[in-house]
Hints:
The structure holds 3 protein chains of 3 kinds. Chain A is 41% helix and 19% strand. Chain A is α+β, with helices and mostly antiparallel strands. In chain A, 44% of the residues are buried. Chain B has helices at 3-8, 11-19, 25-43, 51-67, 108-115, 158-165, 182-188, 222-232, 276-291, 306-322, 341-352, 355-368, 374-394, 420-424, 431-436, 464-477; strands spanning 46-49, 77-81, 119-124, 171-176, 191-194, 214-219, 262-266, 295-299, 400-404, 440-448, 451-459. An 11-stranded mixed beta sheet of chain B has the order 1-3-2-4-6-5-10-11-9-7-8, sandwiched between helices. In chain C, 31% of the residues are buried. Helix content of chain C is 35%, strand content 9%. At the B-C interface, helix 10, helix 11, helix 12, helix 13 and helix 14 of B face helix 1, helix 2, helix 3 and strand 3 of C.
Amino acid sequence: MSWEVVMGLEVHLQLATKSKIFSGAANQxxxxxxxxACAVDLGMPGMLPVxxxxxxxxxxxxxxxxxxxxxxxxxxxxxxxxxxxxxxxYQVSQFFEPIVCxxxxxxxMEDGSLFPVRITRAHLEEDAGKSVxxxxxxxxxxxxxRAGTPLLEIVTEPDFRTAAQAVAYLKALHSLAIYLGISDGxxxxxxxxxxxxxxxxxxxxxDFGTRTEIKNVxxxxxxxxxxxxxxxxxxxxLESGGTITQETRLYDADKNETRAMRSKEVANDYRxxxxxxxxxxxxxxxxxxxxxxxxxxxxxxxxxxxxxxxxLSQYDAALLVDTPTLANYFETAAIxxxxxxxxxxxxxGDLAAALNRENLDIDESPVSAExxxxxxxxxxxxxxxSKLAKQVFEGLWQQEGTAxxxxxxxxxxQVTDTGALEAMVDQxxxxxxxxxxxxxxxxxxxxxxxxxxxxxxxxxxxxxQANPQLLNTLLISKLRxx
Amino acid sequence: MAQEALTYASxxxxxxxxxxxxxxxxxxxxxxxxxxxxxxxxxxxxxxLCEESALAEAKAADLKLRxxxxxxxxxxxxxxxxxxxTRNVATTCASKMLANFVPPYDATVVSRLRTAGTVMLGxxxxxxxxxxxSTETSVFGVTRNPWDLNCVPGGSSxxxxxxxxxxxxxxxxxxxxxxxxxxxxSLCGITGLKPTYGRVSRLGIIAFASSLDQAGPMTRxxxxxxxxxxxxxxxxxxxxTSADLDVPDFTAGLNQPIAGLKIGIPREYxxxxxxxxxxxxxxxxxxxxxxxxxxxxxxxxxxxxxxIATYYIIAPAEASTNLSRYDGVRFGHRCDSPQNLTDLYERxxxxxxxxxxxxxxxxxxxxxxxxxxxxxxxxxxxxxxLISEDFQxxxxxxxxxxxxxxxxxxxxxxxxxxxxLAMYLEDIYTLSVNLAGLPGLSIPAGFIDGMPVxxxxxxxxxDEATLLKMGHRFQLCTNHHRATPTMTGVNx
Amino acid sequence: xxxxPADVLSVAQLARLRIDExxxxxxxxxxxxxxxxxxxxxxxxxxxxTPMSNPxxxxxxxxxxxxxxxxxREALQKTAPAVADGFFLVPKVID
Lengths: 482, 492, 95
C-alpha cells in the first residue's frame, strides 16, 4: 500500500508591537516573571481589553502581502478553556469573522517551480502565559508576561505533501514577516510557532484520513523530523490494521518521537461566542489603501525583479531575497560591479560559507557589499582567475583593504598578457620534449589528460596567475603545431 | 438641621447647607456614620464601613468648601455597591470567592466620583456577583427592607437601595444588568437610574454580563441622580464599550416643562399578569404627568414575554465566561491542599461560589456549548434584536415608555428564594431595557399597604435628559420620594 | 427537553464545578426548569435576523501602541494564594 501524506500548517506569529494586544503592558522577551503582566493581562476583576492599533495594522499588512481578501468587519470571540497560563479562562481570538480571509502564498522551490499554498485565513488573538514545570517540587510556576502578546494565527489549507514543501513555506513566511517588519520570526524564542496537522491516505484517494496535530514545533529542522517520524508512526498504525486517533501531540526532540499531550486528552468544547467587551473592527478602503502604499517591496516582487533585472534563476533570486538586508547587500554589490550573476554566485557560495563557518549574519559580514563588488569587478575584467579571487576574498575577510589593494600587495594579477604567456608556454614545451612527443602521438582522450600536465607546469611557472582560458588556447595550438 | 433631617435630606439640599456652612462635611459624615451604627445591625445594608478614611475625606472636603473650589457633590457622603473596585478597600461582590480581595485599583466610576468631591463611606450589600433580585444570596447575609424588616429590599443592589432609604447616605452607586438598580429602588421607595449602555464606564466594575451591565446612581431624588450621573458619565478609553459621545448637562434641563411629551403605555405590561393594585398606582402616577401636559399613547412591545427567556440565556452565558477567571490561581478563594489542577479548579470554585451563581454558570455554559449554541445563545441574540427593534418602533410614536418597575411590592424574605423562576419574573419589566441598552429610571410612585411602588420610565438611547426632566417634574408634583421608613417589622 | 444528571455533570465539568452527589438531583431539576423557560424562544420567528451582541452600532476604538503600564507585580500579587520568585504556583501540570 502506498501512502500519501497530507498536511496543513498553523503558524502563530508573535507581532512585534511595543505593547500587548489588549493592554499597555510591555511586549518584550526575557523579562523577570510577571513584571510585564498588568491587571488586564492577569484578568483581574473588573479589567477590560482595549485593542492595539498596531496589531491591526500588522494583520492588514500581512493580508495585503498575500493578496488575501480582507475581513473589513472582523470580530473577536472568546475561546473558553481552563489552563493556568490562561488567566481569564478564555482566550480572546477571532473565530467566526477573521481580519484576513483567503489568500495565496507561492513558495519558490529548489527545482525552480513555484509551489502554491492556499492560506485559509489569518486572525488576531492574544498569547497565553508560560508554565515552568520543573522549578518547584510538585508545583508548576506560571509566568504571565507573555499573556496578551499579540499573535497572528496563519492557517493553510491541507496543501502540503512533503516536509520540504512545509519547510520551504515556513522559511518564506519567516522571510515575509521580516520584510514587513511585523515580527522577528524567532522560532527559538517562540515568536514563530508551528502546529502541523498530519494525516495519511492511500495514494490516489480523494478522502482525508484522520489527522493528528503536532503542536509548537520551534525549528525548521524539527519540523522536518517531526513530519518524518509522525508519518512513520501513522503508517505503522495503519498498516497493522489500526486507526489513527484524532489528537494533539508534541514532538520530543531528544527522543525524536511524537507523543500525545496529556492535558488535551479530554476533548475541549471551546464554546466560541462574540467577545462582548470588544466591538467589531471596521476597516475601510482609505485605511487599507494607506497601508498598501506604505508596504515595502515584498519578497515575491523583489524576487521577480531580481530574476528579470539581473537574469538570476528563480531559486537563486529566492535565496537572495530571504531578508531585506541580504537583498540590499546583493543589489548594492551587483550594481556596483555590474556583474550580477557573478555577484550572486559569490554571495551564495564563498560568502555564505564563510559567514556560516563563523556563525555570522549578513549584516555582520566583515566584507561589505562595496568591498565584494570590488572583487567581482576584477574577476569580471579578467584581472583575477577564480582561484586567485579566492585568495583576494580571504584578504577582504581579514579586512586587509580593498580588492585592488590586496591584489597589488600580494602580486596576484592574473597573467593575461598573451606575449608573456606564450613565452612561458614555449619554455615549458621546450623543457618537456618527451611529453610533447607523447601528446602528438596520442588519441583525443589521452591528449586531454596530457594537456593537464602542461597546464600544471605553466601554472607553476606563473605562480598560478596564468589566465586559464588563454593558456588552454595557446597550449593546444602550440602542441598541435608539428 | 436635625439629625434625622440631615440623613434624609437630598444631596442637592445638603450641598446648599454645606456651601453656606450651615453644616460641615465632617458633621454630615458623622451623622451618616451614626445612622449606620444605629440601624445597620438590623438592615445590614453596609458591609464595609470606611470610617477613618471617610472622615479624612470629609475634612479635606471642608477645606474645599471654605476656599470656594467646591462642586455640587463636594463633601457629600456616598456608598459604593460592593461590586465597584475600590483601591485598598475590600471588594467582595458579596461572595466567598472574593472575601479576601482588596484591589490595588479604583473603578473609573469610583475615581470620577472622588474627583467630584464625594466622601466614600463604605460598601453596600448585594446579591452574590449581582445575580439575584432580593439580596438574599450574599455571603454577608440578607439585607432587610427598611419599610418592612421582614421583607427583601430587592436586588441585586439591595444594600444600596436600603442604605439610601434608611438614611445611611444620600447617595449610592448601583449596577443594573436586568433591573438591579430599578427594582430595588422601586421596592425601597427611592430613585434609581440605569443609564444607556455605554454612557458610564464599566472599567473596574466586576463583570456579570458584559453587554448588559451598567452602573448608575441610587438617590433620594431625580435631581440628585442627575448630579451623580453627571460626575459618572463620559467615555473611558479603558472601556471599549463606553460611548464616545458628549455628555449633556443633565442638571440644566431638569426644570424644563414636559408638556407635549408623549408617554407610551405598552399593552403587554398591563395585562392580567400585573397585580391590579400596582397597575392602579402606575395609572395614578401617569395622571400626574398628564396634568403636567404629557400625553399618553398606547404602544406595543410584542416580544415582552420572551424577554425573560432571552435574558436568562444571554446573561448567564456571558457571566459563565466572565466568572472563569475565578480559579484560585492569581487571586480570590483557593481550596486547601489542592491535589492536582482539576481539584484546584473544581473545589476552589465550588467552595467559593454560592448556589445561584453556580446554577447560572451551568445554564450559561450549556447555552454556549457545542450543539446548543445555535438553539440557545444565537437564538437569544436574534430575539434580542427583535426586542430592541420593538422599542425603536415604539419610540417613533412616543418619547418615553412608562410602566411598573417591578410586578409587586417587596415580598417577604425567603418567599421566592426556593423558586428561581419566580425570582426571575421580578425583572419582567426591567430586563428588556438592558437587552436593548436603553436608559431606565425608577421613581417612587406611591404605596400599597405601606410598601413602596416604583414607576419606571424608559427612554431612547442616550436620552437620559428626557427621563430626568420627566422624573423631576413628577417629584415636583408628588411627595412619595420624601417619605421615610420607620424601620419596623413584625418579627423584629 | 428534560435534562438528566449526566448532562448536568458534563456541563459542570466544562465549567470546573463539582456537584455534590446529594445535590445532583436538585440541581438537575432546577437546571431542567430553567431550560424549559428558555425553550419558549423556539416559537419566535427569527428568520434573517442578525444576532445582537451589543446594543449599539458602535465599532472598536483603537489604542496607540505605547507602553503605559509599569511593573506592578508586588501590588498585583499581594492577595495571590501562592507565589514564589514572582511566579504564580499551581499543582504540577503534566503535559
